[in-house]
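Re: [help] complex structure
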Amino acid sequence: MPGLVLQALPQAEPGPARIGFTVTKKVGNAVIRNRTRRRLKEAARLLLQTRPVGAVDLVLIGRDATRARPFLVLMDDFARALDKVGVA
RNA sequence: UCAGGUGGCUGGGCGGCCGCUGCGUUCCGUUUACGGGGCGUGGAGGAAAGUCCGGGCUCCACGGGAAGACGGUGCCGGCUAACGGCCGGCGGGGGUAACCCCAGGGAAAGUGCCACAGAAAAUAAACCUCCCGCUCGGCUAUGCGGGGAAGGGUGAAACGGGGCGGUAAGAGCGCACCGCGCCCCUGGUGACAGGGGCGGCAGGGUAAACCCCACCGGGAGCAAGACCGAAUAGGGGUGGCCGGCGGCAUCGCAAGAUGGACGCGGGGGCUUUCUCGCCCCGUCACCCGGGUUGGUCGCGUGAGGCGUGCGGUAACGUACGUCCCAGAGGAAUGGCCGUCCAUCGCAGCCGAAGCGAGGACAGAACCCGGCUUAUAGGCCACCUGACAUU
RNA sequence: GGACCCGUAGCUCAGCUGGAUAGAGCGUCGCCCUCCGAAGGCGAAGGUCGCACGUUCGAAUCGUGUCGGGUCCG
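Output below.
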């Protein structure tokens, strides 16, 4: 059960890294979607302070499990996802 | 104590660390613009939801009358800016009660429909049965003629109900009661209620069938709309109509210009039509091509919240005091931890302790008043019924 | 922000306007046919008509409310 899905794309014209969030209607109503996005946002904020990335665009997609995932585990998910796409 | 009814409130509390955002102030980078830091302060809901009604606001249209169409509302009185909302009554229905529910105008304006069953489903009629007569007396069956609509049967519903009298049998034929209709009186602003008289039953149901009556209703929506700036363009095509046409006079070589009388002729808009009237005349429709998604305002002092007094049965109104209370860009109000209070689970029940789980429905997008829907749990007040005690 | 449409058998749809039997095709099951299967023939099962309340003698159909799904315009 994944905590999140990460998409990454190098920027054509290098600049600061950008992050977008996607939580579809399948996940739940507005409250659930908002909360899911906020947890992803907080995890990205904390993690990218310690290991910055280069000129890439990141998209974080929230899933059902994102809402109830323990926060430290969610951050670990994000770190392993960054390793897999290789944008360290 | 238990069961129930009505109305209202609440919608986890406290603390710590790291963040987001509006405003104010201050400092720094680079003076503006902008960015960053510090400090202070504010930061979702009772439904923010559905978008079912009613308004504010903004733009567009706007001259009056009549008829009509469409949509909505529908007992009475009041409240309200308004409402299909709310309050108080009336009538009907349910409940032992507190109390709850009701689209609740008109069926003698007209049209339609009422399956099956049944004789008959709404100008009425008569299947079985009942009664009388058809030379006399008795019996039976049938037929014919007549009386009548009480009884049987069918149906959701059968042309007032059941009772007494009456009669050959019957019938509002007569009588009282009930129902119904009309008239009058009394009370009430009214819906309506109470009473009296008359009629002798006419008028089945359905209007959430068409319809009739009364009342209400311009269109669009903050992506409304206003300002500033940038860029591009200052367009093209097709069609309709118009700027008039015909005819006359004068000037002119002509094209054309001017003139006023006559005849004929428009289009579009203002309400669907009509009538009167008004406005516009290079305008309308469609298509092609080009540009724009930047900023600011609108944007929160409002039919505003809270408290107290007064008027009113109430909805509500009013006076005084006090408060300023989210507003951004598709969108901030978050993440983690500790603790407490509720809740649930851990042995079938009760109690205690411990451990664990873990916060209902749900996120403002111009604003307001309602309605409807979702919602774990908790609290308060009043009332009803039963039991117990005094 | 506005305008609409649809919920009926496992699936796709009729029936609704104009009220009284809930139907069709495919699918499923059983039998026949065949050495077996397909096709074909015969038969059967299978339905809260999204939900609630109401109108009516009677509701899939009419009215109101509500839930879910979908479409279009800006």
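Chain A has three helices and three strands.
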